[in-house]
């Protein structure tokens, strides 16, 4: 039976890991600075983090917490895990930043910003960090939809050899963060049932 | 079996799949020289806006104003849906949009008439399904350059799992200043028509297009989509893997039951950037496909991004149907290390299988397998 | 030259988001790529933007920029000879 074996909820002022709020002091004001606060609190030690856009930072941190809590082996290449994320605003937060670099009177398009104008880059960042070589996919929906996330996860499991899916809603726009990342095991007897009601309960906390 | 019931391409080479295929067979290209936003020479395959608007208004009789990507998307979907003869307003029909940047051009026009929500990809998708009065929530796939393959895999799964009886998959992207500037900052644009797999290749051309595949379940003659898989390199967010890791793995799963000798050709991603084409050559060789004919369609259409996977699949499906391997336009002198059988002439093939591959930023790679049934 | 090298280090840190790195941490003569700061291909492209934005130097061929971006010293040397602003 499909089970959620770990999950992380990340909003502007909340960090919840497996149902428990994390005690993180936020020296920064609400906004992107708080993602750095979480990074420092977790002592991640991954300088590439600072090159990421806010969407990737948020998805990366939530994934990091989920995988850590499962003691996931991030050193061994793993083709049995897939990453399927979705959100509402695509990479619009960074699209706006890139647009600023191409204004007529100050035209210096930044490659480091441009690369993040694709929302699936966050799935790539998590894949690189953890050597995950299964599928990586990104879907857009108008609003959070647990039913659709179950369907996407189901599809990912239909590809040969995939036994777990890191499934997430990763939304970041204009300084506001709304993220839920769950590890879903195809066959497990431990964990939270992977159904609409449970996902909605987790999302609404 | 999951089969394409109808298809359409809206590109500078024509507004039907038949016209586009005929243009490819004649060796035509939509790529023409022009300049980027600051006057640097580039080459783009651009849709003529007035021709597009005229065809769109004639076919779709719009009740409101639409952006160019919306026009291309709706025109392409309308023509394909009509040809398929399906009821697009039925709850048993699903819609999938494949796009990387949709209406991104609106971001550069703060005072536009389209409202704030129009910039969102979900809005584009809602416009698409809404145009046909379809009651379902449409899905948008945005997985960089492999979007068009990922969208077909989504449609495949929707039909396999019985979610819908028909799925309309439409891809669209335009050569906005946004995208041109971005690729220019990556130094990956060729100022001339691109040369996939060639020794003198310098980069890609951006291309504009919309393309639609209508999938359904059917038996008998024709082409079917056997399966598709996506795998990640887990290597770098923009640089292709030096070992072709993700593409190799996607190919292994997709070709599990089909030996290389049964594959007529590979319709490669072949963007004509130095690293992409080299990566593909490595992955194909590792998958035992170093003797299988390979071509890229990028010199005909440019890189049409969100539409690429759909547009290039359609042309390749038509080639498989006709029993021909297309020549890889722009290729003269072998430009990748290792064995790679780049197609140089139009050749006949009796083989039943064809592979479409795509790779993109974020380290994602996709392989699709199609079969001809006689 | 000293001021140029110091400014350049500051600009590199800012442009490449090298958090927790100060100008003093960057060895002027050490290789910027692979070892040293561990920069990658996107960083190299971003340095091209930095050269144009800060010093008005256009580097069109990323192949040729390899030598220029070998170290902060080689960059500073190239800038001092070619700067437009």
Keywords:
heterotrimer; B: 374 residues; alpha/beta; Peroxisomal Thiolase, Chain A, domain 1; 2 domains; five-stranded mixed beta sheet; 10 helices; 23% strand; globular; C: 85 residues; mainly alpha; Non-ribosomal Peptide Synthetase Peptidyl Carrier Protein, Chain A; 0% strand
Short description:
The complex is a heterotrimer of chains A (205), B (374) and C (85). Chain A has a single domain, classed as Thiolase/Chalcone synthase (Peroxisomal Thiolase, Chain A, domain 1).
Poorly predicted residue ranges of chain C: none
> Using DSSP, what is the number of strands of chain A?
10
Looking at CATH, the homologous superfamily of chain C is ACP-like
Helix percent of chain C reads: 40-55%
CATH architecture of chain A: 3-Layer(aba) Sandwich
Largest sheet features of chain A: 8 strands, mixed
In helices, the fraction of residues of chain A equals: 25-40%
Instruction: Could you tell me the CATH topology label of chain A.
Output: Peroxisomal Thiolase, Chain A, domain 1
Total domain modules of chain A: 1
CATH topology of chain C: Non-ribosomal Peptide Synthetase Peptidyl Carrier Protein, Chain A
Largest sheet of chain C: none
Oligomer: heterotrimer
Total separate domains of chain C: 1
Task: Summarize the SSE layout with pairings.
The complex is a heterotrimer of chains A (205), B (374) and C (85).
Chain A: E1 3-11, E2 15-17, E3 20-21, H1 33-42, H2 54-69, E4 81-87, H3 92-101, E5 102-103, E6 106-107, H4 111-114, H5 121-130, E7 136-140, H6 146-157, E8 164-173, E9 176-185, E10 192-193, H7 196-204
Helix pairs in contact in A: 1-2, 2-5
Chain B: E1 2-10, H1 17-25, E2 31-35, E3 41-45, H2 49-60, H3 68-84, E4 93-98, H4 121-131, E5 139-141, H5 147-160, E6 166-173, H6 177-185, E7 206-207, E8 209-217, E9 222-232, H7 245-254, E10 263-267, H8 274-286, E11 294-295, H9 298-301, H10 308-322, E12 324-325, E13 347-348, E14 353-360, E15 364-373
Parallel strand pairs in B: 3-7, 4-5, 4-6, 10-11, 10-14
Antiparallel strand pairs in B: 1-8, 2-3, 6-8, 9-15, 12-13, 14-15
Helix pairs in contact in B: 1-10, 2-3, 3-4, 5-10, 7-8
Chain C: H1 2-15, H2 41-55, H3 65-68, H4 72-82
């Amino acid at each position: 039976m499909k089970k959620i074996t770990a999950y992380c909820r990340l909003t502007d002022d909340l960090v919840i890991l497996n149902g428990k709020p994390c005690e993180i002091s936020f020296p920064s004001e609400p906004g992107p600075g708080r993602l750095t606060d979480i990074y420092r609190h977790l002592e991640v030690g991954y300088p590439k983090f600072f090159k990421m856009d806010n969407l990737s930072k948020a998805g990366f941190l939530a994934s990091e917490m989920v995988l850590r809590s499962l003691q996931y082996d991030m050193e061994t290449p793993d083709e049995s895990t897939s990453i399927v994320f979705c959100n509402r605003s695509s990479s619009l937060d960074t699209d706006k930043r890139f647009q600023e670099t191409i204004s007529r009177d100050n035209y210096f398009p930044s490659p480091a910003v441009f690369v993040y104008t694709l929302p699936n880059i966050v799935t790539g960042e998590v894949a690189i960090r953890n050597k995950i070589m299964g599928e990586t996919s990104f879907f857009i929906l108008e609003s959070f939809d647990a039913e659709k996330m179950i369907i996407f996860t189901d599809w990912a499991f239909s590809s040969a050899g995939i036994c777990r899916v890191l499934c997430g809603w990763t939304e970041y726009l204009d300084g506001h963060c709304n993220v839920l990342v769950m590890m879903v095991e195809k066959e497990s007897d431990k964990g939270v049932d992977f159904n609409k009601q449970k996902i909605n309960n987790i999302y609404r906390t | 079996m999951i089969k394409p019931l109808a298809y359409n391409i809206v590109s500078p080479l024509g507004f039907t799949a038949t016209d586009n295929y005929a243009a490819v067979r004649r060796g035509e290209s939509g790529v023409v020289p022009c300049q980027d936003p600051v006057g640097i020479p580039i080459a783009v395959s651009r849709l003529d806006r007035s021709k597009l608007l005229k065809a769109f208004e004639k076919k779709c009789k719009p009740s409101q104003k639409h952006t160019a990507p919306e026009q291309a998307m709706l025109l392409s979907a309308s023509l394909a849906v009509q040809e398929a003869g399906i009821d697009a307003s039925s709850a048993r029909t699903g819609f999938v949009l494949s796009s990387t940047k949709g209406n991104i051009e609106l971001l550069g026009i703060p005072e536009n008439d389209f409202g704030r929500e129009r910039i969102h990809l979900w809005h584009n998708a809602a416009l698409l399904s809404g145009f046909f009065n379809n009651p379902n929530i449409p899905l948008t796939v945005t997985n960089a350059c492999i979007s068009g393959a990922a969208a077909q895999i989504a449609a495949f799964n929707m039909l396999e799992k019985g979610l819908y009886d028909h799925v309309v998959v439409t891809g669209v992207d335009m050569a906005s200043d946004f995208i041109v500037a971005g690729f220019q900052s990556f130094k990956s644009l060729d100022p001339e028509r691109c040369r996939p797999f060639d020794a003198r290749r310098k980069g890609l051309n951006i291309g504009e297009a919309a393309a639609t595949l209508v999938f359904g379940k059917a038996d008998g003659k024709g082409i079917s989509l056997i399966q598709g898989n996506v795998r990640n390199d887990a290597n770098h967010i923009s640089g292709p893997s030096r070992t072709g890791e993700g593409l190799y793995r996607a190919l292994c799963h997709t070709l599990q039951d089909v030996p290389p000798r049964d594959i007529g050709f590979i319709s490669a991603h072949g963007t004509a950037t130095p690293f992409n084409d080299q990566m593909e050559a490595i992955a194909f060789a590792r998958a035992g496909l170093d003797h299988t004919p390979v071509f890229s369609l990028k010199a005909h259409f440019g890189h049409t991004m969100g539409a690429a996977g759909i547009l290039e699949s359609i042309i390749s499906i038509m080639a498989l149907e006709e029993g021909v391997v297309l020549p890889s336009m722009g290729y003269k002198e072998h430009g990748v290390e290792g064995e790679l059988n780049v197609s140089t002439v139009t050749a006949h093939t009796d083989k039943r299988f064809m592979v479409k591959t795509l790779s993109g930023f974020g380290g994602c790679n996709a392989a699709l397998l199609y079969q001809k049934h006689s | 030259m000293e001021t140029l090298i110091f400014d350049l280090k500051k600009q590199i840190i800012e442009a490449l988001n090298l958090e927790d790195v100060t100008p003093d941490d960057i060895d002027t003569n050490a290789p910027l790529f692979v070892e040293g700061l561990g920069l990658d291909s996107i960083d190299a492209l971003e340095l091209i933007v930095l050269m144009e934005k800060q010093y008005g130097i256009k580097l069109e061929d990323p192949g040729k920029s390899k030598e220029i971006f070998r170290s902060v010293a080689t960059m500073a040397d190239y800038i001092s000879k070619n700067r437009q602003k």
